């Protein structure tokens, strides 16, 4: 995880670290509440902050902030499939793999490399036997608690 964020924003589950290229959001990271806040200094991050705040207040809020989505062709396909999962819905790594003619592990790897969680809602993807890993392949308690918070916030039935 990069140490140099362009902003560190408050979130109901901790903080969100953001990197931008000036006109687009490049990366979002989940950070613990102990991370030191860093105010946004660009219009695109101010816009993301407003959209995140709207989402925290209403899970039906939509994101339309400009994004710089960098990834392989396969990752892009997985991320598009994730974006098709409706708020409150869940899918599995296996379901996406079958749709793309792949395997669950590859889908899990692509989910773990998602540079824009929340906006690309990888929290809506779970394993066939439980909630699954999350956030750049992290499996620690903090990241799973973020995933649980997001799913509860969106009204998903947790496994």
Describe the structure.
The protein has 159 residues and is an alpha+beta fold. The chain has two domains: 7-57, no CATH class; 73-153, Arc Repressor Mutant, subunit A. 35% of the residues lie in helices and 14% in strands. It is built from five helices and five strands; from the N terminus they run E-E-E-H-H-E-H-H-E-H. The chain has helices at residues 43-57, 73-83, 93-100, 104-112, 141-153; strands spanning 7-11, 14-20, 25-31, 91-92, 125-126. The chain has a three-stranded antiparallel beta sheet, with helices on one face. It has a two-stranded parallel sheet with strand order 4-5. Helix 3 packs across helix 4. The chain is globular and about 40 Å long.
What is the chain-wise order of helices and strands? EEEHHEHHEH
**What is the tally of helical segments?**
5
Overall morphology? globular
| Neighbour order of strands in the largest sheet | 1-2-3
Provide the CATH architecture of the largest domain: Orthogonal Bundle
Distance between the termini: 28 Å
Spans of at least 5 consecutive residues with low confidence: none
Largest β sheet strand count, sense and barrel closure = 3 strands, antiparallel
CATH topology title of the largest domain: Arc Repressor Mutant, subunit A
Kindly state the percentage of residues in helix. 25-40%
Domains (count) = 2
């Amino acid at each position: 995880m990069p140490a140099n964020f362009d902003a560190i924003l408050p979130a109901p589950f901790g903080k969100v670290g953001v990197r931008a290229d000036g006109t687009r959001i490049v990366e979002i990271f989940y950070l613990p509440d102990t991370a030191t806040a860093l105010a946004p200094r660009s219009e695109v991050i101010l816009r993301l902050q407003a959209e995140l705040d709207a989402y925290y207040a209403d899970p039906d809020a939509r994101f339309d902030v400009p994004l710089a989505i960098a990834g392989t062709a396969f990752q892009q396909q997985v991320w598009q499939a994730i974006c098709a999962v409706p708020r409150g819905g869940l899918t599995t790594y296996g379901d996406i793999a079958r749709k793309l003619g792949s395997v669950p592990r590859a889908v899990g790897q692509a989910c773990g490399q998602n540079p824009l969680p929340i906006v690309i809602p990888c929290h809506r993807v779970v394993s066939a036997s439980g909630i699954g890993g999350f956030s750049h392949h992290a499996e620690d308690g903090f990241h799973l608690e973020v995933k649980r918070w997001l799913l509860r916030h969106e009204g998903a039935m947790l496994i």
